[in-house]
Amino acid sequence: MKLLKVEDVLKREEDIQHAEVEYDVIKELGDETVRYAILSHRWEVEVTYKEITGLAKMDERRREEVRNRPGYQKIIRSCEQAMKDGYEWLWIDTCCIDKRSSAELSEAINSMYRWYQDAQVCYAHLNDVDDSTFPAEQNVDTFDKSDGWPEWFTRGWTLQELIASKQLEFFDKNWAPIGNKRKLAHVLGDITTIPYDVLRNGLAGKRLSVARIMSWAARRKTTRVEDRACSLMGLFEVNMPMVYGEGKKAFQRLQLEIIRTSGDHSIFAW
Fold first, then answer.
1. Is the dihedral of CA 104, 220, 243, 250 positive or negative?
2. CB-neighbour burial class of residue 112 (10 A; exposed 0-12, middle 13-18, buried 19+)
3. Mean pLDDT in the chain?
């Protein structure tokens, strides 16, 4: 598991204009023993692993373009929050996976649910919430592209991140805290249809049908067709190699793997 070293990311940002040596901002560590924070967010213009590790070596024009991206600002603000909360390490999906390696990407996808589950805290950044309060009521004027709720609630990947994280803190566009999963469980249940007990305590020990869990994902979207399946694997405790380019076959393979491991045929409703 590759993790951002919070202190070095922030030190490099302070020294970026005159740094002579590149900081070692990402290290590979065992996730079983490290206490770390993790980010959940809606992708915008992001920063890759190659860019975050090679930032100081870029020419000034290229470096400033990267630093001005919304994705880079999320990295900095997440690191600032992690440092404030006392965490030395932080994981962000955009820059902590070297997606040039298909093996590393596949391992990360198959491990992601566990990584969110094992994190000490998850920061959920709602980039379309301007007010410093959680939107407790549906508002189609404010969130006209996402059924009246922040777009974070319409994305495929954020479903497992919401359920897996034992402590999840919400932040608005400007990184002001606006509540946490436990205190907002009833509101989150209204938004997502996920039961209160699952939101507070996760899926462990729950005897829920495959169809019930699938229903929570029914209206969520992913940018790539294959991610429809990828984003659900952790919820059903299945592992399988991912093949980007296979399209809808990925979901068919997921269905077969769920049947093989659970024997629950309610999945055919989907």
1. positive
2. buried
3. 93
d(CA 208, CA 66): 44
E strand spans, 70-171: 89-91, 121-125, 168-171
Measured distance between the N- and C-terminal CA atoms of the chain, rounded to whole angstroms: 33
Distance CA 93, CA 41 (A): 9
Q: Which residue type is seen at 236?
A: F
Q: Tokens in use for 190?
A: 């209204």
Burial class from Cβ neighbours inside 10 Å (0-12, 13-18, 19+) for residue 43 reads middle
β 2-5/36-41 pair status: unpaired
Binning the chain into helix, strand and coil, the percentages to the nearest 5 are 45, 10, 45
Per-residue pLDDT, 20: 60
How would you write 231-269 as a 3-class SS string? CCCHHHCCCCCCCCCCCCHHHHHHHHHHHHHHCCHHHHH
- What confidence tier does 270 reach under pLDDT thresholds 50, 70, 90? low
Instruction: List CB contacts of 59: < 8 A, sequence separation 6 or more.
Output: none
Distances (CA, A) of 138 to 142, 154, 161, 182, 198: 9, 13, 22, 20, 22
Q: Do residues 63 and 117 lie in contact, with contact meaning Cβ atoms separated by under 8 Å?
A: no
Residue 44, pLDDT > 70, answer yes
Q: What percent of the chain has pLDDT over 90?
A: 85
Q: 111-156 pLDDT, tens per residue?
A: 999 999 999 999 999 999 998 899 989 999 999 989 999 999 999 9
pLDDT at 51: 97
pLDDT average, residue stretch 78-94: 98
Q: What are the Cα distances from residue 3, in Å, to 49, 220, 253?
A: 11, 28, 30
